[in-house]
Design goal:
By secondary structure, the chain is α+β, with helices and mostly antiparallel strands. Helices cover 34% and strands 33% of the residues.
Length: 341
């Protein structure tokens, strides 16, 4: 995401969206009652019986609903048309859906921009500049592929080795090489600069030796890291991200921050310092007993939550917004989606 301009006098933020993660960001910060302006297409009929043709228009709508379609890589923002151009191709107060995609430029208009919402946008702009991280969790049976994005972890397909101890040594070696080549071929096609290959046992080490012996890593032209995890499942990927071994790679990354914050919250539960749920959080704010608030991004449009966060801002309490789709967000949901410590 690139922040083009923030017009403070009109409450208008103009941004260019680069990735699906940017669409996710916009979905989280655009609420009912906000306005969004973007280029779009509108079917125009010269007469009622005409099938009509699509015309390029610029439309501003009053937002009533947002929905992210990851499969289509589109953010659909629906609401009534407030203004637009050319005027002959639009009907004011009629409903329209903006289909926003990566590479689109949009304007978001709010009557108020709380600091915590602005921080979400700044974080998205910051994360877009970072190299993305590709992760391959492997053992001798399968490989699990994943990406670490600014918005969390995206898991891809698995590849199976089809190895068997019943194979002859020759067949086993041929099949193993085929398995390694599949993994390294996928690593080469990952749209990232850094790839981490990790897992239990010696398979990750065997891949490294095979790749080095055949000069494959140099041909791929990416930075590779090889680490140990307890398993090659999704939990192993999360274990890798939390681990100290790649702290330098992921330094400052939002995911690591989220895990650390959740650990701090859980530790505070034992001493009674941490509180969970909207009522307890509001009480802590009123009693000047909160230093930081964690809140799931799925709750940002809720009036009670908006009220709590506004009070927290006024009291200079730090606010951390958590991705509700990730492991920490799921864990936070079990504590009422908002906590403080």
């Amino acid at each position: 995401m690139k922040i083009i301009k923030f017009y403070e006098s009109t409450g208008t933020l103009k941004v260019r969206l680069d990735t699906v993660e940017d669409l996710w960001c916009v979905e989280r910060i655009v609420f009912k009652g906000d306005m969004v302006k973007s280029e779009s297409k509108r079917r125009f009929k010269s007469v009622e019986t005409d099938a009509g043709e699509l015309k390029d228009v610029v439309i501003k709508i009053g937002v009533e609903e947002t929905k992210l379609d990851k499969a289509a890589m589109r953010l659909r923002v629906r609401g009534k048309i407030l203004e637009g151009r050319p005027l002959e191709y639009i009907t004011l107060n009629s409903y329209h859906t903006l289909n926003i995609a990566p590479e689109d430029t949009i304007e978001i208009i709010k009557t108020e921009w709380p600091d915590y919402i602005i921080q979400v946008v700044k974080n998205a702009a910051r994360d877009s500049k970072k190299p993305r991280l590709g992760i391959i969790a492997v053992d001798d049976e399968k490989a699990l592929f994943a990406y670490l994005h600014g918005s969390g972890i995206q898991f891809e397909n698995e590849v199976y080795s089809h190895l068997s101890k019943r194979m002859s040594q020759k067949d086993f070696t041929e099949q193993q090489n085929k398995y390694f080549n599949q993994i390294l071929d996928f690593a080469g096609r990952m749209p990232v600069e850094i790839v981490v290959i990790a897992g239990p046992g010696f398979t990750k080490d065997d891949i490294k030796k095979y790749a080095e012996a055949n000069s494959i890593l140099k041909k791929i032209g990416k930075r590779f890291f090889f680490f140990k995890t307890s398993n090659n499942e999704r939990s192993g990927v999360y274990e890798l991200i939390r681990g100290k071994e790649i702290a330098e790679i992921l330094e400052g990354d939002r995911m690591r921050e989220e895990f650390a914050l959740m650990a701090e919250f859980l530790e505070g539960l034992e001493s009674g310092r941490s509180k969970s749920g909207i009522k307890a959080v509001l009480d802590s704010i009123d009693n000047y007993d909160a230093d930081r608030i964690l809140v799931n991004d799925s709750m940002l449009a809720e009036e009670e939550v908006k009220n709590a966060l506004s009070k927290a801002e006024a009291a200079r309490i730090r606010i951390s917004i958590i991705n509700s789709d990730d492991e920490v967000g799921v864990q936070l949901h079990s504590f009422g989606d908002i906590v403080c410590m």
